[in-house]
Design the sequence.
């Protein structure tokens, strides 16, 4: 059991990396400040570009309601402006995400071995691709299904009056929630890369992973009925098994064996 203890693995990973060239605390803070400034600049640029297309972004948000012939209403004079600003900020963050992720990589790369830095392109591509896949899954399947169940199903006897503020929060919670959930293989990638977990550990503790996934799904799911939570949890379970394959591929023990064999 000790061989699979994640705490021991984390200690060993930190010990192994102690031999890497270090940076002082002030150097770390200066590097962090630099990366944050660059990330904020990219986010602002993305926001400006997204706001230029704010009418098109609103059309994307409104489309699921148009299919149900439900208009959006507002209760405060600034609701329309807030909708445009909020959606432009999220759209800008998605546009700027490759550049922001690269800043994150530049910050953590000094603590990585040279052979580990080759994962920068797969890391960025997979992170953006998985997030967009999760957002698309939420927009294409979860959001329309939730609206049909909640509005045309449970509330079919009532007249729906959806406000901009409520619907925007509902929309973004589904899109962003599933986008973040789809990043599970990336989390497993880093845990395996630093030797904290491996594929055998993940498989042996699969039942605990199921419990954790459903707890996360219950927290981020805007609907509280079991069917909706299963819609959130089912792709996360599939991504967990994908993460098992990723963990097997990048774990240092396997790569060291391959290097020794070569």
Sequence:
């Amino acid at each position: 059991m000790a061989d699979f203890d994640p705490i021991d693995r984390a200690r060993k990973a930190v010990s192994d990396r102690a031999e890497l060239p270090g940076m002082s605390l002030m150097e770390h803070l200066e590097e962090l400040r630099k990366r944050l400034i660059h990330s904020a600049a990219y986010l602002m640029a993305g926001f400006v570009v997204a706001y230029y297309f704010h009418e098109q972004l609103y059309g994307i948000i409104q489309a699921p309601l148009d299919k149900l012939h439900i208009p959006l209403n507002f209760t405060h004079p600034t609701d329309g402006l807030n909708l445009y600003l909020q959606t432009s900020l999220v759209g800008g963050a998605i546009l700027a995400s490759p550049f922001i992720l690269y800043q994150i990589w530049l910050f953590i790369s000094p603590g990585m071995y040279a052979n580990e830095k080759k994962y920068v392109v797969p890391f960025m591509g997979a992170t953006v691709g998985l997030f967009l896949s999760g957002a698309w899954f939420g927009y294409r399947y979860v959001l329309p299904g939730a609206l049909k169940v909640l509005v045309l199903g449970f509330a079919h006897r009532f007249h729906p009056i959806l406000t901009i503020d409520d619907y925007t929060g509902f929309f973004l919670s589904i899109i962003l929630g599933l986008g973040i959930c789809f990043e599970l293989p990336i989390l497993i990638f880093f845990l395996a890369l630093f030797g904290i977990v491996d594929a055998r550990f993940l498989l042996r503790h699969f039942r605990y992973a199921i419990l954790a996934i459903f707890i996360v799904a219950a927290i981020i799911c805007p609907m509280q009925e079991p069917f909706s939570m299963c819609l959130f949890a089912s792709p996360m379970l599939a991504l967990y098994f994908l993460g098992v394959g990723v963990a097997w591929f990048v774990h240092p023990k396997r790569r060291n064996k391959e290097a020794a064999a070569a």
Remarks:
- DSSP finds eleven helices and two strands in the chain.
- The two ends are 30 Å apart (CA to CA).
- The beta strands are 72-73, 162-163.
